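Review session, final week

We close the course with one last complete record, chosen because it touches almost every idea we covered. It is MYG1 exonuclease, a protein from Cavia porcellus with 324 residues. Go through it on your own first, then we will talk.
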Amino acid sequence: RFLRGLLVLLLPSSPLRTHHCMLSPESVPPQKKPRSNLMAPPRIGTHNGTFHCDEALACALLRLLPEYQDAEIVRTRDPEKLASCDIVVDVGGEYDPQRHRYDHHQRSFTETMSSLSPGKPWQTKLSSAGLIYLHFGHKLLAQLLGTNEEDSMVGTLYDKAGFRRAMDLVQEEFLQRLDFYQHSWLPARALVEEALAQRFQVDPSGKIVELAKGGCPWKEHLYHLESVLSPPGTIAFVIYTDQAGQWRVQCVPKELHSFQSRLPLPEPWRGLRDEALDQVSGIPGGIFVHASGFIGGHRTREGALSMARATLAQHSVAATNLVQ
């Protein structure tokens, strides 16, 4: 409720989707980064493509501060464009508060509220929104409530002020969710069923499903179809195109709401991007592999297929060695 209320203050009509992050009303103010053109509005950089609550909330929190209220949001993954931004969140593979770089996807990132703010008990790894709140949150709340940062009633006063807007948000989100179920979720069932039937044409193993018409809400439908049809073998990967026309290879979770994959992408690939990923995977054209190994990206269909097939092959070798 607290995070939703903050975002509603700036974006009262925006739909939210939950994303795990650990936040605290404590601030660790970073050093300011000088800009070459003091007359130009600041630029907040984040990634393009599918957006999530994490970076949307991070950008919204920043825009509540006077110094960023007129900021331009630059959505890109281009390193040169990101380098020109005053602050970058949820992209770039770098956490450096002195340079205002707040990404958490890189392999080396392990920070928690406890590690960055000694004395705090929370051990959950921070998201980008969590990092922004850690470094700017105390100042932000004081600004919103017109009080000083030491005011002990900041949280209580905010909860009271945001209740009615929170009710409006709940109603709006319900209607949006109903629309999603009608126009996206339900039609996706036929697409997943067709893809499941044609999976052996994608790969002889039958373990890779291709959504030929692009990404759609597939997980719940796949589990339902597996329980009804009992197809031979275990589906390990789903490949599809994203909004930019690039390809994703996503691992099927062990269970519907699980964060563990049936077969994650290889550990040496995780947290790597671009050329570094190509060198380790041996598959040119790679874009990224998430730090947890549940999803990766490639520029081509064949490349995404190769990532899935290579993972299957490595798993098969490991299983054989284990038996021997």
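Two points worth writing down before the exam:
The chain has two domains: 43-160, 186-322.
DSSP finds ten helices and ten strands in the chain.
Good luck, everyone.
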